[in-house]
């Protein structure tokens, strides 16, 4: 029982750390008003990397051994652990899925940023891809995500026009 208690303490520390990561990932992002759509892709890539690293650690042999010992001891801390494991898996899947969809948009970000303001030729294709993401993505099709994406696309268009007018 002494070993079980020590392992439960370790799992409780991990649980607290994982909860902190999840809470931080759900906080509202603070971004400047002129940030473009590439920032959205970078955000999700960073988040995917963090959650994948966390998943790799959770699935390591060391962690699996500790969890197996606690399962054999019928520890009550495992209920919290399983919930967090599921939450991390969902967050990792969401980030991976969002990166996959945003990479489809990535080919439009360059022309949107570097083209002269007569960028109308790119907009119908860009909107078709955004519509496809909205219709098919299981995670990115929320109003919060779409609003953020449209805001960043609009910011990029405004920045491109400002640059054209001021530098041209």
TrEMBL record:
It comes from Malurus elegans. GO terms for biological process: microtubule-based movement. InterPro entries: DHC (IPR026983), Dynein_heavy_tail (IPR013594). GO terms for cellular component: axonemal dynein complex. Pfam families: DHC_N1. This is DYH8 protein. GO terms for molecular function: dynein intermediate chain binding; dynein light intermediate chain binding. Residues 5-166 form the Dynein heavy chain tail domain. The gene is Dnah8_0.
